[in-house]
Every structure is written in structure tokens, then in C-alpha cells.
Amino acid sequence: MQFTTISFDELTPRQLQKIYWLRIAVFVVEQQCPFQDVDDVDLTAQHLLGTDDDQKLLAYARLMREDHHQARIGRVVTNPEARGQGNGQQLLRQAIEQIQVLWPDTAQINIQAQHYLDRFYRSFGFQPVSAIYLEDDIPHQDMVLRLN
Question: What residues have CB less than 8 Å from 73, skipping those under 6 apart?
Fold first, then answer.
């Protein structure tokens, strides 16, 4: 899988269509969660795309800079056709690395994690910092990865 990190203004129309197709296919259709996936955060985020040799989108996350030397990883998603092959692990590793390249002074990475993925995120060093709560009827928890 090859990774590209790109701003919204640099995305091609085809890349943007693939991103929105994947996010809606998983977050809205598969998880049966009708919500406004496309938002203004897309305009300022860095978009991390994991593609195969044919440019098929296998994994995606968006990276956002936050105040106080913090960053956020959001909309973490793996193509259903590409699950079980380690693509999610590659994506998260790359997201953490890209944040450190884009914003070298980042001391903490935040994520709103679906609770069933708790063990997955903990394997990268993320720790829960909130109780479990419902976000669009799906159990979530806030987690952080401290870098320094």
C-alpha cells in the first residue's frame, strides 16, 4: 500500500470521490449511522490516502492540527474489501508518522475511537481519557497518545 498525505485543495476530483465513497460506505451504510459525514473540517485537514497499485483506496484517515501542540486523527476507515490484511495497522502507523512530520512539535495525538477498537488503539500506545459514550448510537471513547 502506498500512502499520500494531501490537503483538500490539492485533492483531485477522483480522489475526493473515492474518499467520500469509502467514508459513506462504511460510516453511513455499513454501520447504519445516518450523519453528516462531509463537513468543513475536510477543508482544513490533511487527508491520508492508502492506495494499491491501481489507485484503489484501501484505507483513509484525516489529520488535523489542534491547539496546545496537539493533533487529531479522524475518519479512520479501511475498505471492507481490504480488511484483515494489516491495512488498518499500516494506516494508523502512517498517520502517527505523518503528524510528526507535518507538525514536529506535536506532543499529543487525540482520537475519538469506537470502543470495540480499544485494543487496536492501545496497541499503538493510545490510552483512554474518557468514559464510554454514544456518538451517533455507537459506543466511543476519547483516547490520547502522548509523544513526549
Answer: 61, 62, 63, 64, 92, 95, 96, 99, 109, 110, 111
